[in-house]
Amino acid sequence: MGELDEKQLIEKAVEYLQPVKLIDVQIASIKEEINQLRANLTSIGAIDYSKDRVTGGGTPQGLEGSVAR
Question: Where are the alpha helices (DSSP H) in the chain?
């Protein structure tokens, strides 16, 4: 009978600590996101606006120009 009580206590403890396990996983996820954001700070490049812009090219045509002949 004492064994059954111990088993029930273990089940209750596991159930009680389940939210702690979830929070631990969330903390690990947030830490990983922080590390990724820190890595992005040093690797994101700037855009050089001094270069000429390239537009769509050629003269605009209607649907007839895009149909295969």
Answer: 2-43, 63-66
Half-sphere exposure of 55 (CA within 13 A, CB side): 4
Interval 26-69: pLDDT, tens? 999 999 999 999 888 887 677 777 877 766 666 656 666 666 55
What gap in Å lies between CA 17 and CA 26, rounded to an integer? 15
DSSP 55: -
3-state helix, strand, coil in the chain (%, to 5): 65, 0, 35
